[in-house]
Write a structure and sequence with these properties.
118 residues, mainly beta, OB fold (Dihydrolipoamide Acetyltransferase, E2P), 1 helix
């Protein structure tokens, strides 16, 4: 799988990849035997990696950088284009329609259908 690094913490050996198939994000955590070396990934780097699924979570295996700084604009572009960041649009006023409320008439209620007898 090919992806782009959206977030990384090299000191902790962790990264999040946006995948080419536009599916769920893939998460990478450096194996314990390699801890302290740093993953060396920076946001925007293009990476190639294997995928495994563990408890509905995509885990990236054996990632390697294909092209450094290939899409450095991507993390910010996704952050600014997300619907959660956009300002809500004000409702447009409707032009000149007069709404007449329905009122109930006092008195006994009549049923227009024939009454059935048992």
């Amino acid at each position: 799988m090919i992806g782009v690094v959206l977030w990384s913490d090299n000191a902790a050996g962790k990264a999040v990849f946006w995948c080419e198939d536009q599916g769920d994000l893939a998460y990478y955590e450096e194996p314990a035997i390699c801890m302290g070396h740093g993953s060396g990934f920076d946001p925007g780097d293009m990476v190639q990696f294997g995928i495994t699924v563990h408890r509905k979570l995509r885990i990236a295996d054996n990632p390697r950088v294909v092209l450094e700084d290939a899409a450095s604009h991507l993390p910010d572009a996704l952050r600014h284009d997300s619907p959660a960041v956009q300002e809500p649009q004000a409702a447009k006023p409707r032009g000149g329609a007069q709404i007449i409320p329905f009122t109930t008439k006092p008195g006994p209620r009549r049923c227009g259908a024939a009454q059935l007898k048992a």
